[in-house]
Structures are given as structure tokens and as C-alpha cells.
Write a structure and sequence with these properties.
This protein is α+β, with helices and mostly antiparallel strands and 241 residues long. Helix content is 45%, strand content 21%.
Length: 241
Amino acid sequence: MSTESLYDVSAFQHLSEASKSQLARGLRHVQFPKKAAVLKKGQRVSGAYVVLSGKLRVFTLSPHGNEATLYQINSGETCVLALNCIFNDLLYPAWVEAGPETKVAVIPGVIYRTLFESEATIQDMTIQAFSTLVFRLMSELEEIHSCNLDQRLANLLLLNASTDGSIRMTQQEIASHLGSTREVVARILGQLASKGHIQTGRNQIVINDPVSLGENLRLQQKETIAKKGKRPVPLKARTKQ
């Protein structure tokens, strides 16, 4: 989903006239280039961030200095950590960078808190944002503890592939998502390519047969679980944008 205005987001379509008037006094629309720093760890948060187009990546750093993605904020969604900061007067605890062609609506914290008190749709959006984040983080934690890096990389490719099997991500971007290094990712991609699962090119990877790669991933997970005595982690369905 991509929207031109905050009022195209369902939670803001039925605000009272008083709330719309208040929102208009402080609302800002900001366009970010790819990889632009949106928020930094330790920064004071000015308001709520609602993604209108593109996406935001929230990440932290490992003890070795590698980036590790915590979660992504898609179009129509809001940043939960920013909401937590404006409701509890906290500094931002991670880093946020923009994806390609990302546009964000920034609502001043004071205004958002007022809207939350008076508008049921804003309350619903906030609660949904928190519950969605908890689900995503639990899924990521389960994957980290149940899958090795090879399996996590294959899963990432399947989740980010378009209908023609292409993934427009650099090896460094993949490494940052997985909390690994570009060299390790390059090695695993080389192994997948040698087995005929993928083709690699400049800033692009193509899955030759997504169903075959998914089945290979499933078998690997079963073998891993058999060794650990744990249940398999189901392959997450790709969310349509």
C-alpha cells in the first residue's frame, strides 16, 4: 500500500473536525532518500512516524558492530518504539533508516497523545501496532533460535522475492538484516547458486524455483529440529505490499 497523504491511512479517515484541525497545525510530510538516517539511538523523538510509502528499517548493532534488523515498518504502519518514547518521555533505543522512495508523516507527540485520548481509531491503530510488533519480534526470535544462518538467509530470500523470483537487495543489505557480514552472505549465496537454486547479479538475486527452494528449506529445518528435538518453524507467508 502506498498513500499520498496521512488522511489516506484508514485510522485517520474518520477523525472529528476538531481533531483534523489540531492535526493540521503540526503535521509534517517528509520524503527520505534510500538509506537516509531517520532516527538515531539516543535521539529525542519529536513525534509519531507513520509510513505513507516505502518502508523503514529499525535495527541495532551486535557486539561485533554488525547491523541486525529488529523489524520493518511498512506503508500504513507506525513506529512502535517512537510511540513508546513519546508516551513515556524516553530517548530512541535503536537506529532507523529509510528504504527506497520512503515518505513519512510526522505527528508531534503532544498532538498524537491528544488524538489517542479522544479518537477510537487512533487507539485501535496504536494497540494494533504494539501487538504486530510483539508478533514480529517473537517470530524473529523463534527463527534465530530454531534456524541456522543458511536457513534464515533462504527464508529471507523467499519472503522478499517478487512474483518473478527476483530480490533487489545487495549482499550488504542482506547481511545487515541477518546481523552477519557480507563475506558470510556471499559464501552462502555462492552455495545456493552452485546448487542451482538462485542466480546472482549486480544488486539482484533471482530464485530459479521458489517452490524447490522452499521445500529444500523445509527439509533442512526438519533435519535441524530432529537433532535438537524441536518443532519446525513454519515458513512465514510473504506479506503483499
